[in-house]
Design a protein that fits this description.
255 residues; alpha/beta; 6 helices; 27% helix; single chain; Rossmann fold; 14 strands
């Protein structure tokens, strides 16, 4: 059985563990670097990203988290977890915060505004229905949520949503004090995948829809299949005495 770690510094980690339990999967709380050992995958939940970053620094977790992402094992960030995984974040508090990185995107930490502007909406996610069945839409719960402003070429966009009326203008201030608008579209990206990283700006763990968690577990199966395939290829390329063959003998050779 897969063992899924859930970063349990602050935020909705209990809700993720409960969601995993409902589909028969063990979720374990992670607060220290050595607790990442032996995990098949990791969820970084929603919460207050600045607080989570301070606690992660206190426990010296950032190097271990970056190493875990680099192993290729599946990692899923929801809301604040998305911010953690982004290569670049804007809209941060004074002084900024440390990021894990690995996801080629720019995220705005508080795109949709303050807590009172939290909302729920139906999101179109055809990929989720294709892979896990059910409706082509899912319920998106956005709580003081971030959003993805732009992504790299290797990032697959899974869902976007309309920008709600009254959403604060997104601007940055240059060194000369000149304000420059960086986002003016009527829709914004809220779910992506890049390799072993899944990220959602909303909270699937706060709904009864378990398909996002099942999708994440399927990513774990994919990673195991790739590892087994690589091991099989390595084994098949050695001779009876264990020496590495220059070419697999059962494959055509083109000169």
């Amino acid at each position: 059985m897969a063992v899924v770690g859930v970063l349990a510094l602050q935020g909705s980690y209990n809700e993720h563990i409960s969601a995993l339990r409902r589909i028969g999967v063990k979720g374990v709380e992670v607060r220290k670097p050595d607790q990442l050992q032996g995990l098949d995958s990791l969820i970084i939940p929603g919460g207050e990203s600045t607080t989570m970053a301070k606690l992660a620094n206190y426990h010296n977790l950032f190097p271990a988290l970056r190493e875990f992402v680099g192993t290729g094992k599946p990692v899923w960030g929801t809301c604040a977890g998305l911010i953690f995984l982004a290569n670049k974040a804007i809209g941060q508090k004074s002084g900024g915060q440390e990021l894990i990185g690995g996801l080629d995107c720019t995220v705005h930490r508080n795109f949709f505004g303050s807590q009172v502007r939290s909302f729920e909406t139906e999101l179109s996610v055809p990929m989720l229905a294709d892979k896990e069945g059910g409706s082509p839409t899912c319920r998106g719960v956005f709580i003081r949520a971030p959003a993805i402003l732009e992504v790299g070429s290797d990032v697959e966009i899974l869902a976007d949503c309309p920008v709600p009326a009254g959403t604060p203008s997104i601007t940055i201030t240059s060194g000369e004090g000149v304000e420059e608008e960086v986002y003016s579209k009527d829709r914004v990206i809220v779910a992506v995948r890049q390799g072993n990283i899944l990220a959602t700006a909303f909270h699937p763990e706060l709904t009864s829809d378990s398909r996002w968690h099942r999708l994440f577990l399927d990513m774990d199966k994919e990673s195991h299949a790739k590892a087994f395939s690589a091991l099989s290829l390595s084994t098949s390329s050695r001779d009876a005495e264990g020496r590495l063959n220059p070419r697999p003998l059962d494959l055509p050779i083109f000169e």
